[in-house]
Amino acid sequence: MQQNPNNIRPWLYVLGISAAALAGATLLLSFLDSQTPAGKPQDLQPQVAALTVTPHVPDWVEFCGARIDLERYNRHEGFDREIASFTYQHSATLLLFKRANRIFPIIEPILKQYDIPDDFKYLAVIESQLNPKANSPARAVGLWQFVETTAREYGLRITSTVDERCDIAKSTVAACRYLRAAYDKYGDWLSVASSYNGGMGRISSASRYQGGQNSLDLWLVEETSRYPYRIMAIKQIFENPYRYGFLIRPFDLYKPIRTRSVEVKSDISDLPAFARAQGITYADLKRFNPWLRDRRLLTAGRKYQLLIPDPADMSYDQPNTYVHDPRWVAN
Prior knowledge:
There is one protein chain. The chain has twelve helices and four strands, in the order ααββααααααααβααβ. By secondary structure, the chain is mostly helical. It has three domains: 5-44, no CATH class; 60-248, Lysozyme (Orthogonal Bundle); 256-313. The strands form two sheets. The protein has a two-stranded antiparallel ribbon with strand order 1-2. It has a two-stranded antiparallel sheet with strand order 3-4. A hairpin with a 2-residue loop joins strand 1 and strand 2 (66-69).
């Protein structure tokens, strides 16, 4: 099929490749080919499949409604590191878009309900890669990566059969409570973001000791220093995927699957049998209720809502057509 030149131009713009640069690349390939010794196997000849270009670092970005200046050297270089990392970790970044098509519709209304800026959904992206069962070496669990003590402090229940850190909606509520408490303390969303990784005590102590600077300019451990830049960088890519080389089509995204809710008030001694009675597999019951920790459910007098997926939505015989954010897909 003949290539449409109009489809090439956006990529040249994105990569900042001029006609002269392309000509130079062609000459380089010709030169490398001419230097290949006679008789050298074809698969060992130098080849260049694509040009690798550092993504552009803007002078500023917007985060939580505020303009964040990136011209200071540490900010420019901090953002540069993260935008390049997400841009060229192609398979991992593509997976984030696919999962977001399911997860964002759940967490965005909760953030709005608790008056938390929508940009904090990107915090969940970098915390867990939008995996509700993510588990870190530090024993942080779930979409928002709560350790057990903090999870309990913000209202999540953890027992031998239940771990609400893996409940998408309930853990998002707990995260909102933390974020709101941090904002009441700092009055600044960037400091809130840094505190989610470093802890409120550490950020407050560093700010006092170092003269109350902006959290981006504090001397912190490397992981915490990188944290807000990672959030801002992945936001840039989510809002401008094509600019960073990601071509996404609606059918590439994971299709949302409708569920019905079954209220449970008493113990379930055999969850596989419960699943069969609901017309689904035990594996599907666990996938749609990742907070279940065991083959049984002990309620201790509490009510739980078990989500049962709709069999009509559980196949890709009909490709996904739902796109949560129109900016994700190429026109």
